[in-house]
Amino acid sequence: MTKSDIPFDMVVVGATGDLGRRKLLPALYFLHKYGEISPKGRIFAVSRQKGTRETFLELAAASSKRHIAPDELNPQDWESFTKRLDYVTVDATDGATYQPLSEKLADRQNRVRVFYLATSPNLYGAISRAIHDAGLITPKSRIVLEKPIGTDLQSATAINSSVGEVFGEDQIFRIDHYLGKETVQNLMALRFGNILFEPMWRSEHIDHVQITVAETLGVEGRGGYYDKSGALRDMVQNHLLQLLCLTAMEPPARLEQDAIREEKIKVLRALRPFSLEEIEQKTVRGSYRLGAIAGETVPGYLDEPDVDEKSTTETFVALKAEIENWRWAGVPFYLRTGKRMGHRVSEIIIQFKQVPHQLFKSRTRAIQPNRLVIRLQPDEAIKLGLMTKRPGPRMILEREELNLNLADRPGAHTFQAYERLLLDVIRGVTTLFMHRTEVEAAWTWVEQILEGWQELGGRPRSYNSGTWGPPKSIALLERDGRSWYEHIVDLER
Ligand code: BG6
Hints:
The protein is α/β, with parallel strands linked by helices. It folds into two domains: 8-146, Rossmann fold (3-Layer(aba) Sandwich), CATH 3.40.50.720; 179-414 and 435-491, 2-Layer Sandwich (Dihydrodipicolinate Reductase, domain 2). Helices cover 35% and strands 21% of the residues. The chain is built from 15 helices and 17 strands. The radius of gyration is 24 Å and the shape is globular. 6-O-phosphono-beta-D-glucopyranose binds next to loops.
């Protein structure tokens, strides 16, 4: 990561909301603290709420204490960071209210100008139009859109088209923060920076792939949004499918957005559609009920604030995806994500096939196939399970792990996803952002599942908070003679 000396003005629309306070302000603070952004960069928090720079700074200071670790929150750094911050009251969907912001930006027409929309996605079109009507779009302007882009294919296309009326596709940065995570990038490094894996990365050698993104958190005060969304829209359509794409795509010719995107789209379009019967068999919906996380009792989903007491929204999804192409024919990709699960862990597991001939059969327990674990969270690690000989006089084999613990590597500050992505926006690097065709291709596949669930009716299966989801999710793999990778033992080891 190179430091950026590009002067910029960043307008964060909806800066006082959850995303602004929890992720964006801390990320910008870290970029400032570690000297990654130009000292000339200015940040304008914009929202409808009446307020002043002073009231915003009070709010920012209070939230920084909650979202930045105390050993990172140095008063001098914070003080110097706040010199970049300003606050402007604007109704972002109304071009006529932008005058005060316009005046502040007026003397810096030639610098990079970023509009970060941390608002509800159904406002993206109207806000883009208002920014245009206020005459604020300069040649060096870009707009950042948070996921989810829409709630189905139609709404996603409508959002993309309306933003596209005023911003060129190369000015639109659609964020999926999973693409900014260190280990996700390491997945590319591992696959395409080494000769070892690529020849093995195919159906001849890989038995199946598992992608798990498990959270211990519940809906955290976002019940209103989440109840209309659910795990399939909130996590699978974007984060899990992006991980699947990076795992399954062909090697791109160049490390550029166009080249990578083309390969990702091919994967999305090769995802096998489900029949209604397959949706019943190959997908599992769950909803958490009362349970315990780390010894604390937590409420069930239906008792969360702003959640409809009769809600059928899923907080857990497990499914078996298949990619219809030469490389992956017959290799299932099992995806699983849920809230209020036993542990917070995000991992991609590449389970290789058994050796073709059991040379050591009579002298040891069965040989276990190789397994590559790419862990994104809570710690960043890449582990390769290999059979080795146990020390001693006899030829006994056991599985050991080559463990590349990325979190332990010496070096300065570890970049969090939003820091990397914000820096890329300022630098105009688009590789880690989603093109509209990707978003729309992902919706096309996800939408048939949503429609299938609708047609099938019924409710998600309940699971106790603090567990790994409904038993049907275990059965999904057991039916195929497989099982979910046992995270619990590994995490507590
Ligand atoms: C967001 C989802 O995109 O990702 C949240 O809207 C989820 O529901 C979050 O909690 C998970 O992100 P991370 O980085 O904490 O794994």
